[in-house]
Write a structure and sequence with these properties.
The protein is of the alpha+beta class and 678 residues long. It folds into 4 domains: 143 residues, Rossmann fold; 109 residues, Methionyl-trna Synthetase, domain 2 (Beta Complex); 144 residues, Isoleucyl-tRNA Synthetase, Domain 1; 97 residues, Beta Barrel (OB fold (Dihydrolipoamide Acetyltransferase, E2P)), CATH 2.40.50.140. 43% of the residues lie in helices and 17% in strands. α13 packs across α17. Keywords: Aminoacyl-tRNA synthetase, ATP-binding, Coiled coil, Cytoplasm, Ligase, Metal-binding, Nucleotide-binding, Protein biosynthesis, RNA-binding, tRNA-binding, Zinc. This is Methionine--tRNA ligase. Its EC number is 6.1.1.10. Its cofactor is Zn(2+). It catalyses: tRNA(Met) + L-methionine + ATP = L-methionyl-tRNA(Met) + AMP + diphosphate.
Length: 678
Amino acid sequence: MSKLFISCALPYANGACHLGHLRSTYIPADIYARYNRMNDVDTIMVCSTDEHGTPIAVRAEQEGRDPKEIADYYHKLIGDDLKAADISLDSFQRTTNPKHYEIAQEFFTHLYADEYIYEKIIDQLYCDSCKRSLPDRYVEGICPYCGSEARGDQCEGCGRHLDPVELEEPRCLICGSTPHIQASKQYYFKLEEFQEPLNEWINGNNHLQPYVKNFAREWIKDGLKDWVMTRDMKWGIPVPIEGEEDKVLYVWAEAFEGYLSSAAIWADEHDKDWHEYWDDKAVHFIGKDIIYHHTIFWPSMLMGHQMKLPYSVIGGGYLSLEGQKMSTSRGWVVWVKDFLENFDSDMLRYYLTINAPLNKDTDFSWEDFQRRINNELTDNLGNFIHRTFTFTKKFFDNKIPEITTMSDEDKAFEEEIKSLPKRVSDAIENFEFRDGLLEIMNTTKNANKYFNDKKPWKMVKEDIQSAQACLYLSNQLVHTLSIVLRPYLPETVAKIRKVLNMPEDYTPGFMKYDERTPDVLWDEATNFLPSGYEIGKAKPLFKKIEDEVIEKQLEKLAKLEEEVTQEDEKGDEKMSELITIDEFGNVELVVGQIKEAERIDGSKNLLKVQVDLGDEIRQVVAGLAQKYDPEELVDRKVIVVANLEPAKLFGVESNGMLLATDSMELLTTEGKVGEHIK
């Protein structure tokens, strides 16, 4: 029997799950796991909560709590969310488990012994007030590449991975003071040595999706640089080297091993060898924001450890909400728990799968959700199954009728039924989960047309053989649907198979060990039920979502948007609080004339402007690029705040500010160049 190792990206244990997490990672992984189990593949699907790293440590420090306390709370919360969404994980563990420490430290030790890890003295930010180094998220500042706000090692704007010492205007997140650079010893991984083998693996792996390859190629085309593996902090897995008690493994040096430790814990409990699963076929399901971690960092570590590389890496696109980027800080999200208090999990699984291919970003819209559930699940799929069962009961005493003759129309429908499992299977095998579901829904759409054209309620009186053929084939499709829909809508399938009087091993939540082998296999989808087979009493599978239900959800968002706007306005008010005449007197306003203006590479908003102030030419960076072309500004007389501290925006030094309105309308003047404004 072939084996399969499926991993889901490790969620940070500092927040609950929202719909974006399910869409990009957990629902696709679950579809693939359920499908493979039905194909007699010995499958384990694993995950853990990622409980180290600076985000949790920073939050704990800000709240005066122990990091483990925060991790405990969110591990349970995330687990409850995943269970409620029917994610059939075999193992859901934690990176604070001793087994994970053991595997992560062994991984590091192995790489260190083979000289893939070495010591290096580097510059690192140090806070004198807090008396410590500031790794990653303990420091904030401005990205030197795009001028956006950056948190430690990640830019919020351009998404670049950064060294914190690169940040402009750095500040300590805990005390707000400005840190300074000082020397620090850290341990580095020789990522550069794996440039060529990584390039070969990425380009030669036909199982990697094209968009995943493109992400990875962008990272390696300019050459890889060695990668720091350690941090100076207390919260984390200790570096397994004598004398380095104050250092821990960087979270991305140990989080990957969370896949292995989760599998190892499961294997120990059930007398299995997790290596057999990994060495047969391993597939990672992640969000697209960490594709480069899983196609660059992790494969290079595996190569250094002489382990087999993953079969594929599946990166799911982002999910926005009502046309806006999701934001947990603003609360502009739909939390899994809140959603499932009002709607069935299969509705969520359906909508997040059917809405767009996994490699594309997509949007969650409450009104579109209502439309698709009502039109597609209820009026299409649910209606066909309910009519099939109802008419079988009414005209044939709950028994599948005998078929004696078949028209060309019947034969075409029969062929569509028989070909459906293969069409769905091909899509799932190629990780095209939406395409597989579309094949199912298009078939049920055709089935409704077939049913309407055949008119069994009429033909039962006028042409009994035609009615028998219609209900015979319709029941066969329902049986096929009860198998091919199983990876997508497990709860719905349980209801269908109950009416079909068939065995059902469905239990909500995580996978129980003794239920890993399903009672029904994929190949059974092509088996036709015999004439005379008795079915049970039909019940509607889905209820239509009423307008008032959706209006209530939209009202919640409108209220949230209003609250956010009010907070923004309060912030503006604080910025606009009255100042004294003395304070205003400290602002030096000078008439200047623009001599040159040019765009800054990589920025949509910024212009670099040379301004004549009479006694000097001053360089100023101004956010006017979307309002003015550079040539429009030359020779204009403007008002310059001349006594601002120098700053760097997008890596370009700015020595002043041009006054403009909120709409970026530049304030001009007819004054003399160099004249001070009183």
